[in-house]
Amino acid sequence: MLEPTHLPHVLRRLPAGVATLLGPELRVGFANGALETLLGAPVAPNQPLLAQPGPVPPDLVEVMQQVYRSGRPFVARAYGLPSSTADAGTVLRYYDLTLEPVSEDDQTASGLLLFAVDVTEQEQARQRAHELAIETRRLDTRLRVLTETVPQITFTVDAAGHFEYVSPQWYYFTGQPVTADLNAIWPLLIHPDDRLRVLYQSETARTAGTGWSYEYRLRRHDGQYRWVLSRGLPELHAPGQPVFWHGALTEIHDQRELTEALRRGEAELRFLADSIPELIWTATAQGLIDYYNQHTADYTGLSAEELGPTGWVALIHPDEQVGAARGWVHSVATGQPYEGLYRLRRHDGRYRWHLLRARQRADERGPRWFGACTDMDDQHRLRDALQTQYDELARTNRDLDTFVYTASHDLKQPLLNLRGLFDELRRTASFADPDEAPILTMVEDALGQLDDTLQELAATVQEQRGLSAPAEPLDLRTVAEEVLLGLRTQVQESGATFELDFAAAPELTYGRANLRSILHNLLSNALKFAHPDRPPHILVRSTLPAPGRPTLVVQDNGLGMVLPDRAGPLFQPFERQHPAIAGAGVGMYLVQRVVASRGGHLEVASTVGEGTTFTIHWFDT
């Protein structure tokens, strides 16, 4: 049994703070070591509590006084008091304070019993728990906001497959009321062809404790079934089995239809490629062939596996393999189009000419090559045959030109002999014939016409040989003045005037010999076919009706001509408009031919007795 004298000793060793406060001044009668630790200093007996050196908040003293006056006990839970420590300085510690009035006659309080229990760790744990609860609610609110704003439908099911939660998107999508029984209505909204499979797969995943991922059709609010992707993951709490699965539904209807359309399009393209009688193939960005069409197998007699990614090189004629492979490597490295004419071996061992072409196309999947080999063997052989015929015709044409030029040159000497004999005969002989003068005139004219014809034949051959003269930038005024200088005798005799206007198009890229020949024929004809009643006036000007399409206009006031009413070229060789005027009728034919050989054409407008206008379109559109 504990003796009363032992009570102070016991109270001093209690871990809780104990003190007696006497009178209304709350003088300290007794304080154990735990209370002194709480106050942070030794307690002076019989001194008011406020006079103690420790931190006693005024509000605590006021409450103590009220308890003393009222005589009613009071308990303050987790009351915070600052405490000074050597390690952490001043810290806040929490105590459960019990204030019990003490009275001697059970009527009037004579003091207070203070009992303080340190609950700092419990209070800090409670505060941490409270903070964690607040953070949990905040994260839960954020999670709900996130799950309810994303376009996916989110849900939670338990181990039995019952829905614990579904986001509002499900109600928007299905059009069901929020009062609907999810567990009863959800399976009914799955397409009948998918329902059994979905129920089986979800139950299997829950039984195995694993997640799932599958696609099915879910009925939308408008009655249309849309493809969705369902994914779920278990909430693991080791070591037991999962009790919840969290998942999401993502609508993939448009992507699935696009994939199906792409699959159908690819199948149709492959069918089309297999139907084309050409060797069609595709290659990766590295230049490795990954597809051959059916015609390739039919032509080569080899399957796609036998050809392999580079087997096409072995099909090319050995003499051309190195060049073809080098060109392909260059195109793959640079991305430039690939093109070449090579001989490819057929299944019977025969080589046929093919045009190989490949182009690179890049999309979101990266660059790819698309190529074709077109059989050009018949065209190639036909081209060779045509080239042979062309060479033969060109050789014949050159021989004919040489013959005409030689003949015209060789006939000049007999012509000179005839003219000399005729002059001698006319000088030494006389005839008693009244028609002597007309006959001599006719012979003179015949010899002149023969001479002109021989000169025109020689000029025709020369012009034919000059059709391929190289083009160069030419100043029109300079060339025109050179031509007029050569015609100065005819200009002086006829009293002709010329008006040159090349401001619109002062330059022309053309063959110099061709341009001189054209201007010489046009200007000499304007002088030759002048009207007898007026001096010649010739206008020569350039125009530019369209960019890059210059023209030349030569207009005279001469005799004019009757234009032929026929299709095709206006001028034919040896065709003459004015037989009374000397000429062979080949000048305008040569002009027409030179202009056409350079890609242009000649237009003529003429009125008999008034004049003629020649318009040369140098280049046709």
Short description:
By secondary structure, the chain is an alpha+beta fold. Among the domains are: 6-120, PAS domain (Beta-Lactamase), CATH 3.30.450.20; 150-257, 2-Layer Sandwich (Beta-Lactamase); 469-617, Heat Shock Protein 90, CATH 3.30.565.
Could you characterize what this model shows?
The protein is α+β, with helices and mostly antiparallel strands and 621 residues long. Among the domains are: 6-120, 2-Layer Sandwich (Beta-Lactamase); 150-257, 2-Layer Sandwich (Beta-Lactamase), CATH 3.30.450.20; 469-617, Heat Shock Protein 90 (2-Layer Sandwich). The chain is 43% helix and 28% strand. It has 18 helices and 22 strands. The strands form five sheets. It has a five-stranded antiparallel sheet, with helices on both faces. A five-stranded antiparallel sheet has the order 7-6-10-9-8, with helices on both faces. A five-stranded antiparallel sheet has the order 12-11-15-14-13, with helices on both faces. Strand 1 and strand 2 form a beta hairpin. Helix 13 (377-428) runs antiparallel to helix 14 (436-465), helix 15 (476-486) crosses helix 17 and helix 17 runs antiparallel to helix 18 (587-597).
Please state the second-level CATH architecture of the domain at 469-617: 2-Layer Sandwich
- Sequence of strands across the biggest β-sheet: 2-1-5-4-3
- Residue share in β-strands: 25-35%
Total count of helical runs of at least 4 residues: 18
Largest sheet: 5 strands, antiparallel
Task: State the helical fraction.
Answer: 40-55%
Write down how many β-strands occur, each being a DSSP E stretch of 2 or more residues.
22
The 3D shape can be described as elongated
Keywords: Kinase, Phosphoprotein, Transferase
GO molecular function, one term: phosphorelay sensor kinase activity
EC number: 2.7.13.3
Domain PAS: 265-321
